[in-house]
Specification:
The structure is a single chain. Helices cover 45% and strands 8% of the residues. With 102 residues, the protein is mainly alpha-helical. The chain has one domain. The chain has a two-stranded antiparallel ribbon with strand order 1-2. α1 packs antiparallel against α2. The longest helix is centred in the N-terminal third of the chain and has 21 residues. The protein is globular, with a radius of gyration of 15 Å.
């Protein structure tokens, strides 16, 4: 659908569905947001063009919940994560935990 004038709008609608799904996981306590300075809230996720950045505490249960959401989203939308273009940035966890998360 690239080049079709309606394509960016349809992509934004699909992104909104994914955004609502992530927000719902946060509301249900399945994804724990990272902490910031007092009285400052870090958003659980951010979209920029066709990129998605997700900010959460590095727990395996959170990663599994996000993985399930992304799998369900991919089966419904046909959009899948390109693992060659994806990366994980972490702080404060061991290399063993990072390898297990990856």
């Amino acid at each position: 659908m690239q080049g079709v004038p309606l394509s960016p709008l349809l992509f934004c609608i699909a992104e909104e569905v994914l955004s609502i799904g992530i927000s719902k996981l946060v509301e249900e306590g399945k994804v724990e947001k990272i902490a910031a300075a007092r009285h400052v809230s870090v958003p659980p996720h951010c979209f920029y063009a066709d990129d998605l950045m997700v900010y959460y505490k590095g727990k395996l249960s959170t990663l599994e919940a996000l993985g399930d959401l992304f799998t369900m989203y991919a089966s419904c939308s046909g959009q899948i994560i390109n693992t060659r273009k994806s990366s994980i940035h972490v702080g404060g966890i061991s290399h063993g935990m990072l390898n297990s998360m990856v």
